[in-house]
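Deliverable D4.2, example record:
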Amino acid sequence: MKAFLVALMVLVLTACQQAGSTRPTEHVAPDPKAAEINMRLGFNYMQRGDYEIALEKLEKALKQDPNLPSAHNTIALLYQRLGEVEKAEKHFKESVQRAPKYSEAHNNFGVFLCQQERYDEAEQQFLETLKNPLYSSPAQALENAGLCVNRIPDPVRAEAHFRKALQMNPNLSKSLLQMAELSYQQQDYLQAKAYIERYKAVSAWSPQAVLMSIKTENKLDDQDAVASYSLLLRAKFPDSDQALQVKNGQY
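Output generated by the structure prediction step:
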């Protein structure tokens, strides 16, 4: 849960480079085509970590077309990275208001709100993505909703979201691990083990997953499995908090 997910943005963008760019003047005529190009450039520069140039391009895009939802969404992501919380929220709101079915923006806004510990508002943004039947990543949005409300904590709502996400995509590793943890909390240790087995089939080990395995096998009184997983934890993640926890017998 500590490794919360980072924001989803399903945009396939090509990059081109423009030399000698300068900040736009105060009076730029609306130009939707140019705005789209500058939005794409801004996104590309942001992905490369060139935040100053990215901001120039995105500001220019919004001068050329203030109604472009993708430009609002992208500059919101940039302001989020820069820690400009108020500006990020303003542009996320602009994006989803101008394009209510823009699921990527709803998902990104949800991640932002969850990071601000506004969990109920975040959940609503994730669920808004499902209103668009053409959205390509509804399972990930539901997984995000589950991860977010589990931080309240609200395990009942979280479990409902994880189950729906896994119905759409049975191979979501975060949802599988969270369902293992929720099953463990409910003292359904066989069910927890079953989710761990499914997790192992689709994902590489994480220290959280190995610790979950140790705790589950300990409850099932399989000390050989506990010893085996403990060796795995020390071998793969010797400096992790989970390895220290197991070393101290805190499981």
